[in-house]
Amino acid sequence: MTDTGQGPTDSTGALVDLARQAAYVVIGMAVIEVQKAQVRRQQLLRGYRMAKRAKDFDTTVTQMINAVDSTLEPMLERLPESAQAMVRQARETRDELRTRVFGSSL
Length: 106
Known about the structure:
Blueprint: H1 8-76, H2 81-102
């Protein structure tokens, strides 16, 4: 039988230290993961707020476009056909751009 020079108390103390270090590592990793989750939550919240602002802005733009279109409609009928065609083309371009930006049309 070989003698390692370590008694039962030395082995127990080494195991306790190893378990303590492992616990510190696990707790440290858990803290880091909780912090990552909090950062991701904040990012998602910011994204939600930005999306809400964009939707509110889109609603305002829609109201403005409708007001301008309804106001100018009577004058449009008085314009020459070539000018009416330009206005129609401008409206189509506006609506296409709006659809690309906001994903919806009037």
